[in-house]
Input
Amino acid sequence: MVSKAAIPATAAAILAIAGLPEAMAQIAPHRAAYTLEMADTGSRRLSGAEGRMLFLWDRSCEGWVTEQHITVTLAGPEGDLLETESHYETFETLAGDRMTFRSEFVLNGETDEIAEGEAEMGADGGTVRYSQPRQGEADLPAEAIFPSFHTLELMERAAAGERFFTALVFDGSDATGLSEVTAVISGELEPWAEDDNPLLRHPGWRVALAFFDASQQGAEPTSEITIDLLENGVVRAMEINYGDFVLEGTLSALEELERVEC
Output
């Protein structure tokens, strides 16, 4: 979930079907909305930040569909405002071997960065073919996996009682799209048993995710996210640490989508 991904990728296509049946079966296709508010700032350059995130995780007979749209307004110390938007959409096959992606970052109403293309993984590695911002190809290492498969693998490991998980994830969210993602699973969450929405009546785990630039060894994380991840794939709450400031995400709307019959 939430954009922002260690298993041998030579077996990734097989594991996506044969090794993760329980996690796949648990996923509830859904659409969620979150209110974002600044929790902390380590910089004098900001006096406030607020926004909204819309997230969708759906499944077709062929694969997983994700959409993530974030709008954030940053306020400077003298009241000047900066409007940012990020839009991210993917489709991944159930086998975990192919992915299409589109990512766009908008600054004050103008597109500042865009990435679009498709990626394919094979037994010896993978290839990314970009159509934007320019046409071209890049290689992927054999251990790379895609975001939905990463989330499924994370949930499977959490259910098995593991507390640490590191993976190399290609998500296409920028010009490189490749991150080393370290997950620390700190504990189990009780379901909200009395909640009106049945999607929240599930247990889960608190997971801290640190994203590192895969091209820079020993560097500080580019971003850190802590999520309350339920066993059905719903994120109940989140905290996004950008370094200079922290945003807390509070769930404001949650809708279950119709499950496909294949």
